[in-house]
Amino acid sequence: MKVLVTGVNGQLGHDVVSRLLEAGIEPVGVDMQDFDLTDENETMNYVTRVSPDAVIHCAAFTAVDRAENEIEKCSLVNGLGTKNLVRAAVRVKAKFMYISTDYVFPGDGDRPYETQDPKGPLNIYGQSKLQGEVAVTSQMTAYFIVRTSWVYGVNGNNFVKTMLRLGKEKPSLSVVCDQIGSPTFSDDLATLLVEMIQTSKYGVYHATNEGFCSWAEFASSIMGHAGLKCAIRPVPTTEYKTPARRPLNSRLSKASLDQAGFPRLPAWEDALERYLKLIV
Ligand SMILES: NC(=O)c1ccc[n+]([C@@H]2O[C@H](COP(=O)([O-])OP(=O)(O)OC[C@H]3O[C@@H](n4cnc5c(N)ncnc54)[C@H](OP(=O)(O)O)[C@@H]3O)[C@@H](O)[C@H]2O)c1
User: Fold this and answer.
1) Cys-Cys link to 123, which of 27, 36, 177, 244 (CB 3.0-4.6 A)?
2) How far is residue 192 from each of residues 90, 157, 187, 206, 253, measured CA to CA in Å?
């Protein structure tokens, strides 16, 4: 089996390629220097030349706040880019897996979102990722869509690395306490994605590390495990202005994973401990 992985220089793409190799599957990891997803011909030519059996689409415009000012670029990469890649995957009859986000939901209520719940993104990034989902569902009958949240990995910048840096520089930090979700270690997610892509259990799934917390609780846990003295001051979203609005409720239900017999990911605290051992 040959699997094309987009976004290999990003957090998740990097780990998916490692996990594929470990599973004895041939990965073809690609990024911007190989082809630009927003270019229909480049994408079609590359994919038809490689002719993979499956595509795991991890590449995306992921700068949530920047997206508010770069609306067209974000939509081009996440919407049109996904459309181009799906078209090429259909041409070579490759299985397709699209990585999506909790930000497709409006974040109201306090129960975990089921996969089929109504969408309603609050920001440009979420809208563009939903465009990507539609690009998949409108062109294919069988696909994997896997929504995840609050991703951190060894390869790239993320909230954990930012907290570690600021935790060494500052005695205290204000962190939002009313956005609730699940931090997700990209390596744990990658393990599941590689298991999934080898099956024909197509569908829409939610996959995150288990358990929920606020960003402030996550930050406190990072400081604690890293032995940093920086105090975390919990603040409501209303006191922490960012260009992009973010959902307060980012909880995702794992019912569809359970129904398909896929394993849930480990607890977020456990994942964080393993991650910190790798990078600190
Ligand atoms: N990070 C999160 O918290 C989070 C949460 C929920 C869902 N997700 C989703 O999970 C997936 C993986 O996220 P991640 O954190 O691993 O992302 P990431 O680290 O930002 O990596 C994204 C990759 O996509 C590449 N890319 C951007 N534009 C491209 C284009 N036009 N053509 C080809 N490649 C392009 C980037 O290349 P350059 O570096 O060269 O720009 C980068 O290597 C994404 O689909 C994201 O939407 C992420």
Assistant:
1) 244
2) 23, 22, 9, 11, 16
